[in-house]
Design a protein that fits this description.
Shape: globular
Radius of gyration: 16 Å
Structural class: alpha/beta
Number of helices: 9
Number of strands: 9
Strand order of the largest sheet: 6-5-4-3-2-1-7-8-9
Helix content: 25-40%
Low-confidence stretches: none
Largest sheet: 9 strands, parallel
Length: 244
């Protein structure tokens, strides 16, 4: 577990009134479902020493998609809220970071492909964990202490967990697409109007965690989306120069 994560996790629990006990319960259930695999090594081989794209579902995703379609060979980690739009545009991510609240039909559509699902267990998704049985390649993560088959790479929302994942496995460079962390919720995120306030709060927490990560990671950090402290803001036309 990344040094300093526990302190931040407990601060998040307090701020959002979440239950550590339920997070642990969810992780235990997920661990009971997962089978032993070599997917951790597959992820390491995909990421280590590479330039990795992390894709969110912010408002800029629609602008980013044409660029992403041209970058077929690049390693892509997607937050599951961006998955439907990506798959609809024939972009299949190498890794999907998900707590299973995205589009279930899209998850089922690519559940038997080579894509690796990083399934996150928390107190609010216990009833969805049985979906994992139908996914070919997956690993499990938690916000609490890791154990058995359950990992903790850090991060809170699907998007920032993707960045923490890439950093953990020593990506050379990490470039964000559709990761805006602003006051607007992207149309791809499928957020109900009643959940808007909590969604914006979660995005704020995700942004703060990325600022923290930027102070401790060895990866070079870039964003094509809204500026984030510790990340170099670049236009799409510069992406090709960075990945070569």
């Amino acid at each position: 577990m990344i040094s300093g994560w526990e302190k931040r996790y407990f601060a998040i629990l307090k701020e959002l009134d979440y239950s550590e006990k339920k997070d642990k319960e969810s992780a235990v259930i997920l661990d009971s479902i997962l089978k032993k695999t070599n997917n951790i090594e597959k992820i390491r081989n995909l990421i280590q020493g590479k330039t990795v794209f992390v894709i969110g579902s912010g408002p800029s995703l629609s602008i980013a998609i044409p660029k992403l379609k041209k970058l077929e060979k690049s390693i892509k980690i997607a937050a599951d809220s961006s998955l439907k739009s990506l798959v609809d545009n024939k972009i299949i991510p190498d890794i999907i970071v998900t707590d299973l609240d995205g589009d279930e039909d899209t998850i089922k559509k690519i559940s038997k492909t080579k894509s690796i699902f990083v399934i996150h267990a928390h107190g609010d998704n216990i009833e969805k964990l049985q979906m994992v049985k139908k996914i070919k390649n997956c690993i499990g993560t938690t916000q609490t202490n890791p154990f058995n088959e359950i990992q903790n790479f850090g991060g809170f929302t699907d998007g920032d967990r993707g960045v923490f994942l890439a950093s953990h496995f020593d990506a050379k460079k990490i470039i964000l697409f559709g990761m805006d962390f602003g006051n607007q919720i992207g149309k791809f995120s499928n957020t109900k109007s009643s959940d808007r306030k909590i969604k914006l709060k979660k995005l704020q927490i995700g942004r703060e965690l990325l600022v923290w990560l930027s102070t401790i990671t060895k990866s070079e950090l870039f964003t094509t989306s809204k500026p984030i402290q510790g990340f170099k803001k670049i236009p799409y036309k510069e992406v090709d120069n960075i990945i070569t």
